[in-house]
């Protein structure tokens, strides 16, 4: 009996020592230690890297999960989570640290679902995009923190209002014609944004991300683009103006996947607000300019949604365990959504990779491009589509493909070089040339 009691007390002590390590708030140094702890426990499937530094010099760390960390494998999609963009919205930060530990632990335990996810997906987790703001908010304490204390970066800038505004251009192009994807940035864009924003832009330009979510707080809802309203609102008017993307149905599905896998988001009634199915078009909620969500969609191949995860921006430590249980399945299911639609290689007639080839889907006015290794990914709902691949100097190729609800359909394209067309001279001109060659001019 004394032996059993001893074992019980030992386990109880371990629980008391272990539980707070996971379900607690992490300052910057604690965050860094946690990321490297996960890497040390799963060295063969993880990599810790920095995409840059904050205003105050703190690294913007990312933890990568992959069966080949640091390497893009053709046809393996890239997906990312970004947390703590607003420094005082901290639940996402803690959930992403917990997700990192969970993925590592479950992989080591032989969880087949997690093992398959890691093997088939390159996952990038950034727990904090605004480490400077977090430290300001954390210094206030979770119970006394003002609603906006720590929201901005150290220069007082809201990072989710700091990306180049591409919505203005896309709304013009949708009306008058022009590019529907990969809109260019102004030449001086680097001087117009904060260090954290610049680092993220360079990051998402360097990797061919397919799917993404950024984690916020202050509400409980899955928000999808566009965030910026097409309509100019009259001052004082609170009329909602939904502004859908060409991929609106797909974005609604992605948002619902998270909402319905979440413990209570899908109920709709949260924080005094009501959102049917727990989702909302960003612009129909409130218009937001220069946000990260719209920027991903308009400048890269990445489809991003915004997850508002808690009524309390800085929830007490004792609520973190419950929040983790409410979000765990949703975080995994959302990652799995990157495996849908179509994907494939774009090659020339000599089987060389064709980067930058444009993949167009008839009826959806938003194209994607192939990556550096010629592979492309196009998220699509189940259905039958007409898909065209084009590249400069090559003849376009069009196929009809039926997409199912399961794994993505593999659709490769092999493009042939265009043969320059010889312009025929008019018959009268040819006759004149013949006359002049025989009798001379005049």
From TrEMBL:
Pfam families: CarboxypepD_reg (PF13620), Peptidase_M14 (PF00246). GO terms for molecular function: metallocarboxypeptidase activity; zinc ion binding. InterPro entries: CarboxyPept-like_regulatory, CARBOXYPEPT_ZN_1, CARBOXYPEPT_ZN_2, Peptidase_M14, Peptidase_M14_domain. The active site is at residue 308. Its cofactor is Zn(2+). GO terms for biological process: peptide metabolic process; protein processing. Keywords: Carboxypeptidase, Disulfide bond, Glycoprotein, Hydrolase, Metal-binding, Metalloprotease, Protease, Secreted, Signal, Zinc. Residues 1-20 form the signal peptide. Residues 24-338 form the Peptidase M14 domain. It is an enzyme of class 3 (hydrolase). Tetramer of two catalytic chains and two glycosylated inactive chains. Protects the body from potent vasoactive and inflammatory peptides containing C-terminal Arg or Lys (such as kinins or anaphylatoxins) which are released into the circulation. This is Carboxypeptidase N catalytic chain. The lineage of its organism: Eukaryota, Metazoa, Chordata, Craniata, Vertebrata.
């Amino acid at each position: 009996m004394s032996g059993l009691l001893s074992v019980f007390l030992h386990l109880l002590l371990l629980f008391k020592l272990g539980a707070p390590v996971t379900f607690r708030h992490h300052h910057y140094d604690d965050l860094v230690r946690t990321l490297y702890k996960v890497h040390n426990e799963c060295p063969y499937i993880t990599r810790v890297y920095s995409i840059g530094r904050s205003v105050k010099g703190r690294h913007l760390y990312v933890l990568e999960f992959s069966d080949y960390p640091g390497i893009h494998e053709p046809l393996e999609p890239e997906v990312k989570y970004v947390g703590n963009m607003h420094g005082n919205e901290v639940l996402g930060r803690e959930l992403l640290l917990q997700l990192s530990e969970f993925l590592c632990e479950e992989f080591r335990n032989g969880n087949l679902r997690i093992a398959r996810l890691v093997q088939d997906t390159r996952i990038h987790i950034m727990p904090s995009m605004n480490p400077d703001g977090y430290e300001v908010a954390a210094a206030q304490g979770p119970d006394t923190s003002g609603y906006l204390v720590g929201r901005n970066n150290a220069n007082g800038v809201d990072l989710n209002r700091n990306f180049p505004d591409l919505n203005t251009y896309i709304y013009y192009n949708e009306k008058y014609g022009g590019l529907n994807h990969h809109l260019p940035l102004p030449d001086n864009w680097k001087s117009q944004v904060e260090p954290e924003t610049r680092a993220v832009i360079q990051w998402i330009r360097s990797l061919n991300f397919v799917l993404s979510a950024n984690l916020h707080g202050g509400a409980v809802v899955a928000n999808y683009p566009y965030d910026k309203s097409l309509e100019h609102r009259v001052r004082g008017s609170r009329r909602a103006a939904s502004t859908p993307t060409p991929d609106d149905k797909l974005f609604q599905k992605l948002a619902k996947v998270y909402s319905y896998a979440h413990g209570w988001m899908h109920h709709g009634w949260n924080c005094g607000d009501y959102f049917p199915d727990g989702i909302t078009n960003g612009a129909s909620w409130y218009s937001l300019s220069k946000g990260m969500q719209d920027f991903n969609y308009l400048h890269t191949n990445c489809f991003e949604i915004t997850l508002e995860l808690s009524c309390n921006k800085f929830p007490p430590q004792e609520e973190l365990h419950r929040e983790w249980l409410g979000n765990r399945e949703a975080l995994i299911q959302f990652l799995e959504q990157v495996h849908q639609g179509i994907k494939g290689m774009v090659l020339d007639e000599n089987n060389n990779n064709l980067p930058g080839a444009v993949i167009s889907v008839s009826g959806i006015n938003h194209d994607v491009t192939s990556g550096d290794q010629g592979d492309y990914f196009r998220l699509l709902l189940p259905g039958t589509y007409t898909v065209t691949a084009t590249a400069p100097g090559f003849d376009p190729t069009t196929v009809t493909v039926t997409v199912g609800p399961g794994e993505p359909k593999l659709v490769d394209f092999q493009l042939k070089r265009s043969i320059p067309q010889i312009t025929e001279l008019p018959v009268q001109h040819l006759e004149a040339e013949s006359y002049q060659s025989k009798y001379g001019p005049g």
